[in-house]
Amino acid sequence: MTERVVIAGAGHAAGQAVATLRQKKWPGEIVLVGEEPWLPYQRPPLSKKFLAGELPAERLYVKPPAFYDDASITVKLETRVDGIDRTTKSLRLNDGGALGYDRLILALGARTRRLPPLPGSDLAGLHYLRNVQDVQQIRHGLVEGRNLVIIGAGYIGLEVAAVACRLGLHVTVIEMQDRVMKRVVAPPVSAFYEREHRQHGVNLMLETGIRGFRGHTQVDGVVLTDGSILAADLVVTGIGIVPNTEIAAAAGLEVADGIVVDDRCRTSDELIYAIGDCTMHPNRLIGRSVRLESVQNALEQARTAAANLCGEDARYAEIPWFWSDQYDLKLQIAGLSQGYDRAVLRGDPESRSFSCIYLSGSRILAVDAVNNPKDFLQSKRLIADRTSMNVEKLADAGVELKNLAA
Ligand code: FAD
């Protein structure tokens, strides 16, 4: 009898996992279960071209719809997995049914972090952004001349700001911290993006908190902690995500800010794997365990888990990378900058093409490259090898990064 693998969650990682399982000739049944009404799709365009109305929904799919039939993959959409019974090896579904598995891949992703309960936080016109439905609702409000208030100056908030400015809205971004993208980039990179957004007309309010929302049924204002009120026809909040780990924890799997997996993407139960945003995983190239929120991680973990299920011995060890599109600026990030003790700029931010190199001592940890794909591409190998750099010459953008190893 052939074995059945069930993939719980039907997002980006799941779409890649089923494709790799078939490509590597998984001999048994493949069942994909997801709570959303859509086949696996890519989320990055949701705050970029899809939000701007420049990309049709069909272009979001990870694989074309015909792929699932052609590859004999059973797909159960609008179906939530409510529990895992590891003794009987079955999933409890929200439609009351049960679904047995021989192997299970948890690809549950993450959900948006919510604001604490505040006066007016149930008004219409307040949005979060994680899925296609969220974008469809936000788009209704993206009308020229309207007031948009964005809470949170992370990637998603700033990408939405860039799109809305282009569409002619009056955009305010409120951020509690003293600079934008503080969690991930160094002060000069924040300063560059702050200038860009202000030049495009964004009213950027740093070190600003909110007390609540004003309006009858529909929001018409955001109340700041100093008591002042900002006019708002719609509000988009982007203050981070929370990994979906509850059903794994309830089933007794190890969880620590993510479902804990090893470098083969296996959980503490050898029949169960986990991939993507919901995982906490070791990465020997960066020397610690991390939880990542990126397409690269979702795809690579999916490939690793599927390869192991098909009998290979695949280990996940990739340098994390990420990107963000704001206006005509492409920010590409390689590596993780946490723990850096020096950040060196290469090139002049005024030219709108430069990079920021993060070092620990002389070793390169990470690179932020703005409109500078060359530094981004060359940095990956240097970071993977924890290369010592020629720190004195590093700022000289006339010398290629790869030629600056000490
Ligand atoms: P998801 O894509 O979130 O998929 C998980 C799926 O599981 C969801 O459909 C969820 O509904 C479903 N699910 C959860 N629980 C259950 C359950 N109990 N039963 C059934 N189904 C369940 N990354 C980049 O690298 N670059 C970018 O520029 C970028 N931009 C982004 C912009 C936006 C607006 C967003 C939201 C994300 C962005 N990301 C970006 C992050 C990237 O999209 C995620 O890292 C990626 O989607 C993770 O894939 P995943 O499969 O782990 O999770």
What is this entry, summarized?
By secondary structure, the protein is α/β, with parallel strands linked by helices. Helix 1 runs parallel beside helix 7. It binds flavin-adenine dinucleotide.
Number of helices: 8
**The biggest beta sheet, please?**
5 strands, parallel
Strand order of the largest sheet: 3-2-1-7-19
What would CATH call the architecture of the largest domain? 3-Layer(bba) Sandwich
What's the multimeric state? single chain
Rg, please?
Answer: 22 Å
SS content category: alpha/beta
Total count of domains: 3
Question: Topology of this structure?
Answer:
Layout: E1 4-8, H1 12-23, E2 29-33, H2 66-70, E3 73-76, E4 81-85, E5 90-93, E6 98-100, E7 103-106, E8 110-112, E9 126-128, H3 132-141, E10 147-151, H4 155-166, E11 170-174, H5 187-199, E12 203-205, E13 210-215, E14 219-224, E15 229-231, E16 234-237, E17 241-243, H6 246-250, E18 259-260, E19 272-274, E20 279-283, E21 288-290, H7 295-309, E22 321-326, E23 329-335, E24 342-346, E25 354-360, E26 363-370, H8 373-384
Parallel strand pairs: 1-2, 1-7, 2-3, 7-19, 9-16, 10-11, 10-16, 11-12, 18-20
Antiparallel strand pairs: 4-5, 5-6, 8-17, 13-14, 14-15, 20-21, 22-23, 23-26, 24-25, 25-26
Helix pairs in contact: 1-7
The chain binds flavin-adenine dinucleotide (FAD).
